[in-house]
Design a protein that fits this description.
This protein is α/β, with parallel strands linked by helices and 371 residues long. It contains twelve helices and 13 strands. It binds pyridoxal-5'-phosphate. Pyridoxal-5'-phosphate binds next to helix 4 and helix 5.
C-alpha cells in the first residue's frame, strides 16, 4: 500500500456531519459565527495562550500580523522554511535578512542574529521548524535590547510546549497553520496568538476589510476570515488531537530506535524542556559517511511505494522568485541541511511496522552509491 509523507487526520463522517447540522437552521455560514467563537475559546485553552485570532489560513494570518504592526525596513528571518514565511515578509514591502540556522534543531541560530541588526531592522521572524522550539529566551532578550518585534512562524508547533508554556506564548505574536497537512487542521485555516489585545482588535478589522462597524471602515483590510464549516472541522479534530499526537510519537520512537546508529544518517536530538508534537521526522543524509546520496534514498523508498519530501529544499533565499537577491552561501548550515534533508512519512495512520520497514529500506541504501 502506498505510504505518503503525510496523511490528514479526519473525524468520522458521522461526527462531522452531526456537528455541521445546526448550520442548516442558523444559516450563519461565516463572519465570526458560533463555531468560530467556540473554536477560538477552545484553542486559547488548548494552546495555553491568552488570545487567538482565527484566519482563513496560516499565511494570511502571518501577513496580516506583520501588516498590523506597521513595520518598515529589514526583518531578520530564516531561509530554512516554507515559502510562506519569506513571502509574508516581502509582500508587506519588508526586506528579509537571512540568518543561518542552529545545526542542533534547524531553527534560527540566535547567536548569529545580533551581527545582522542594522538601523533599518524592525523585526525578527523565526520559525519553530518541524515543531522544534527556537531559542525563545535568547531571541526575546535580543529583541528587547534592540527594540525589535518578534513574530514566530509556529505553523509546525501546534501543541508544543516549552517549560510548560504554550509555543504560542512567546514574542509579540505567533502564527499557527491549520492546513490539512498539519498536526491539527481546519481543512484550511490558521491563527495568530498574542498577549496584545490591541493587536487582536487590529487583526479582527484587517481580516474583515478594515470594517470597524456598520458605517465606519477605517482600515485598508482584506478578507481572511475563517468560515463555519472549517471551524466545525477544527472543533471535531481538536477532540482527537491528543490521540493523534500520541500515535505519531510511536512513529517517532520507531524511527529514532532504528536510525540512531546508522552512520551517515543524522536525526535531530530531542529538545530539553520541550513537549513535542511529532509533526515531522527529518533525516539528513551525509553522502560521504553513508555511501549513498539523498536522491538514492528517496528513489529507493519510491520503488517501495513510499513517498518522502525534501522539506525544506530549496532554501527560500534560493527560490526562483528571489533570484539574484540573496546569497545562500552566507547561511552555510541552512544550505547544507537543505541540500541533504529528507522528511520521512509521518502521520497517525502509520503503523510501527510501516515505520520499521521504512527504516530497513533506508539502512539498505547504505553504500549503494550515487544516482
Ligand atoms: C504551512 C506553513 C505555512 C502556511 O500556512 P497555510 O495555512 O498553509 O497558509 C507557513 N509557514 C510554514 C513553516 C508552514 O509549514
Amino acid at each position: 500500500m502506498r505510504i505518503n509523507v503525510i496523511r490528514s487526520s479526519m473525524p468520522s463522517f458521522e461526527e462531522y456531519t452531526e456537528a455541521i447540522k445546526p448550520l442548516w437552521d442558523s444559516v450563519w455560514l461565516t463572519n465570526m459565527g458560533a463555531n468560530h467563537e467556540e473554536l477560538s475559546r477552545r484553542l486559547c485553552e488548548y494552546l495555553n495562550v491568552p488570545n487567538v485570532s482565527l484566519f482563513v489560513n496560516g499565511h494570511m494570518a502571518l501577513e496580516m500580523a506583520l501588516q498590523a504592526m506597521d513595520l518598515e525596513g529589514e526583518v531578520i528571518t530564516t531561509p530554512f522554511t516554507f515559502a510562506s514565511t519569506t513571502h509574508a515578509i516581502v509582500r508587506n514591502g519588508l526586506t528579509p535578512v537571512f540568518c543561518d540556522i542552529d545545526p542542533d534543531n534547524y531553527t534560527i541560530d540566535a547567536s548569529k542574529i545580533e551581527e545582522l541588526i542594522t538601523p533599518k531592522t524592525c523585526a525578527i521572524v523565526p520559525v519553530h521548524v518541524y515543531g522544534c522550539m527556537c531559542d525563545v529566551e535568547a531571541i526575546d532578550s535580543i529583541a528587547k535590547k534592540h527594540g525589535l518585534k518578534v513574530i514566530y512562524d509556529a505553523a509546525h508547533a501546534f501543541g508544543v510546549e516549552y517549560k510548560g508554556k504554550g509555543a504560542g506564548s512567546f514574542g509579540d505574536a505567533s502564527m499557527f497553520s491549520f492546513h490539512a497537512t498539519k498536526v491539527f487542521h481546519t481543512i484550511e485555516g490558521g491563527a495568530i496568538t498574542t498577549a496584545d489585545v490591541d493587536l487582536i482588535d487590529k487583526l479582527r478589522k484587517l481580516k474583515d476589510f478594515g470594517i470597524k462597524d456598520e458605517e465606519i471602515v477605517d482600515g485598508i483590510g482584506a478578507n481572511a476570515k475563517m468560515n463555519e464549516f472549517c471551524a466545525v472541522m477544527g472543533l471535531c479534530n481538536l477532540k482527537h488531537v491528543d490521540e493523534e499526537i500520541k500515535k505519531r510519537s510511536v512513529v517517532t520512537k520507531t524511527y529514532r530506535k532504528n536510525l540512531a546508529d546508522v552512520e551517515g544518517i543524522r536525526i535531530l536530538p530531542e529538545q530539553k524542556d520541550v513537549k513535542p508534537n511529532h509533526a515531522y521526522f527529518p533525516i539528513v543524509v551525509n553522502e560521504e559517511e553513508f555511501g549513498a546520496d539523498r536522491q538514492t534514498v528517496i528513489d529507493t523508498l519510491k520503488l517501495n511505494d513510499i513517498y518522502t519530501r525534501k522539506y525544506f529544499y530549496p532554501l527560500t533565499s534560493d527560490m526562483d522568485c528571489y533570484k539574484g537577491m540573496f546569497d545562500s552561501s552566507l547561511t552555510p548550515v541552512a544550505k547544507s541541511v537543505a541540500d541533504r534533508v529528507i522528511t520521512l512519512p509521518m502521520s497517525a495512520s502509520l503503523t510501527q511496522e510501516d515505520a520499521e520497514r521504512i527504516c530497513k529500506i533506508i539502512r539498505g541504501c547504505k553504500g549503494a552509491g550515487k544516482k
